[in-house]
Amino acid sequence: MEDFKKITLENFGENIFKLIGKDWALITTKKPEGGFNTMTASWGGAGILWNKPVVFIFIRPQRYSYQLIEKTDTFTLSFLDNSYRDKLSLCGKVSGRDIDKINECGFTVVPADDGAFIGEANIAITCRKLYFNDIKECGFVDKSLLSNYPANDFHRMFVGEITGIFIK
Fold it and tell me: Does the pLDDT of residue 146 top 90, yes or no?
């Protein structure tokens, strides 16, 4: 944790569109048996909701992270530089049911705010889960977007209050 400095939301000047959509995030959650799991995400965002600074993330029901985030009140987002792209790809393709992705990638875990983030990150956001809701076919105004769901495996959206922002 000594490599990281906690900053205020007002001092966070990063482009969240680039961080999530282009750089990708690692969503990290606790495992009930101990330890942590992480998965890569490129869908999500941030803003103000219910007068709180929040992030919102999306996880498909077949993902191991979905089972884990259902059982915990916290999650983190870690943003790594492009030199970790191959490891980010692995964390998006391989299930934590099959391998310990954090160990496989050689990542370190930094405890923070009742969770943990990836120590190789340049930026980490800790979150307290506030709300969830399932994406439903009936809600799509633009039906062409349903092509993202050929198996009808609609994401669940999780909204988390930002409890901390850490930078290297």
Answer: yes
- What pairing do the DSSP bridges indicate for beta strands 5-7 and 156-167? antiparallel
Residue ranges and CATH numbers for the domains of the chain are 5-167 (2.30.110.10)
Sequence letter at residue 50: W
What amino acid is encoded at 130 in this protein?
Answer: L
Q: Are 91 and 111 in contact (CB under 8 A)?
A: no
- pLDDT one-digit tens code per residue, 38-58: 999 999 999 999 999 999 999
Percentage above 70 pLDDT, the chain = 99
Q: What is the pLDDT of residue 107?
A: 97
How far is 9 from 72, CA to CA, in rounded Å? 24
Token pair, residue 112, equals: 């923070």
CB neighbours of residue 131 within 10 Å: 13
Query: Is the torsion defined by CA of 138, 140, 141, 142 positive or negative?
Result: negative
State the first-to-last Cα distance of the chain, in angstroms, to the nearest integer: 9
DSSP summary character for residue 32? T
Residue 127's pLDDT is what?
98
